[in-house]
Amino acid sequence: QVQLVASGGGMVQAGGSLRLSCLPSGRNFDTESMGWWRQNPGKDREFVAAITWNGQRTDYADSVRGRFTISRDGANSTVDLQMNSLKPEGTAVYYCNNLGGNWPWGQGTQVTVSS
């Protein structure tokens, strides 16, 4: 069974940067388009970014476009999210999944941005 382990979260001040990493295990994800989402308690999960299986196309939520970059690291078999110029509204638990969101959601990684 596939497991999605997200890491790299933490606490930063507004304007700071973090790099998240997603390591899918238990299944080859080389042919899967992947994405990142975020969620706060009591709110719906929100799409953040996506990347195609071959890394040739990316897409971003308007709220993060120009500040976040999604990428694939073939050597380490991870999907990464570089987050720059973080804002307090970026505080959330960040999750990764295949683009259909139909693998079991992992624990996510907490990102807290202070003003």
Please state how the strands of the largest beta sheet are arranged side by side: 2-10-9-4-5-6
List the total number of helices. Answer: 0
Helix fraction by DSSP (H/I, runs of at least 4)? under 10%
**Radius of gyration, rounded?**
13 Å
Q: Helix-strand pattern, N to C? A: EEEEEEEEEE
Distance between the termini: 40 Å
Unreliable runs: none
Record field, number of beta strands = 10
Structure described in brief:
With 115 residues, the protein is mostly beta strands.
Characterise the protein shown here.
With 115 residues, the chain is mainly beta. It contains no helices and ten strands. The strands form two sheets. It has a six-stranded mixed sheet with strand order 2-10-9-4-5-6, with no helix packed on it. The radius of gyration is 13 Å and the shape is globular.
Q: Which labels suit this protein?
A:
mainly beta; 10 strands; globular
Helix/strand layout:
Elements: E1 3-7, E2 10-13, E3 18-25, E4 34-39, E5 46-51, E6 58-60, E7 68-73, E8 78-83, E9 92-98, E10 109-114
Parallel strand pairs: 2-10
Antiparallel strand pairs: 1-3, 3-8, 4-5, 4-9, 5-6, 7-8, 9-10
